[in-house]
Design a protein that fits this description.
Layout (H helix, E strand, L loop, with lengths): L6 H10 L5 H31 L3 H8 L12 H28 L1
Helix pairs in contact: 1-2, 2-4, 3-4
Amino acid sequence: MTAPLSTDRLDSLAQSLGYRSLSDFTRIQLRHAVEQKMAYYQSRIDYYQQKYGMDFAEFRRRVVDKTDSHLSRFGIIEKEDDDMEWELGIEMVQGYADELQVLR
């Protein structure tokens, strides 16, 4: 078992890596992690926009229209699954954007 590192030791290590403090290191690393998560969820949003050729709001309006020839090419379960994943992606990007403002 290893002994926990003291805050002074961690702060010193962060400074040796070029950061002003442990807090600065933590904030920057958290910001990078949040940016990576945002990029992942944005890629999912982009995928669905390309797949359906529309944004989420238009998809939601048109998906209920059984006569929509463009969306009728996709199965019902496929559209339901994509709807949930697409909405989740949007919510996650918005949530992470809020967190990013705190970290800046």
